[in-house]
């Protein structure tokens, strides 16, 4: 089974994540930021990954450190669970509508991290979650998991747009980690 657990403790945050990529979408999420919990739960459910996230941090300052560090640890956990990436599809994509919003994600698990994100939000926050942290979260994930990801979203409701992005990321990643053969899908012989 493709499982991993990673912990990271700093003077600002304390994060522990457990991931099972061959799960059924069971999650146990606790970050202290209700909307972020909702997004990570949606990611787990729609990727069919079992996911435990226990995160505490200096929310008295703001949500930046906690969301950023959760992204770092989630990226490290994804990379650890995938190991050498043997047999996976490598590429994944998804288009997810949510009412008036539509999110598109295409990604490559080829070992080079890059994020292109086209997302504009009208609100500063959704609940206690800063909308400017959407890009920073995904940047932290893809950098630490070595994912190349292109994502875009349009719509009128920021809640819908962010949720569609998280769900599109879930489906694209699920498709990329799907076993479809043996060996490494690269002419280089390694990812």
Automatic annotation (TrEMBL):
Which reaction(s) does its UniProt entry say it catalyses? D-erythro-1-(imidazol-4-yl)glycerol 3-phosphate = 3-(imidazol-4-yl)-2-oxopropyl phosphate + H2O
Class of enzymatic activity (EC top level): lyase
In short, the EC number is 4.2.1.19
Q: Which UniProt keywords apply?
A: Amino-acid biosynthesis, Cytoplasm, Histidine biosynthesis, Lyase
Q: Which domain of life is it from?
A: Archaea
Q: Where in the cell is it found?
A: Cytoplasm
| Xref: InterPro entries | IGPD_sf, ImidazoleglycerolP_deHydtase, ImidazoleglycerP_deHydtase_CS, Ribosomal_Su5_D2-typ_SF
Which Gene Ontology cellular-component terms appear in the entry? cytoplasm
Q: Does the keyword Amino-acid biosynthesis apply?
A: yes
Q: Which Gene3D superfamilies match?
A: Imidazole glycerol phosphate dehydratase, domain 1 (3.30.230.40)
The Gene Ontology biological process annotation of the record reads: L-histidine biosynthetic process
Q: In which pathway does it act?
A: Amino-acid biosynthesis; L-histidine biosynthesis; L-histidine from 5-phospho-alpha-D-ribose 1-diphosphate: step 6/9
What Gene Ontology terms describe what this protein does at the molecular function level? imidazoleglycerol-phosphate dehydratase activity
Q: Which HAMAP family does this one have?
A: HisB
The family assignment reads: Belongs to the imidazoleglycerol-phosphate dehydratase family.
Which protein, by its recorded name, is this? Imidazoleglycerol-phosphate dehydratase
Please give the organism: Methanolobus halotolerans
In the UniProt record, what gene is named as encoding this protein? hisB
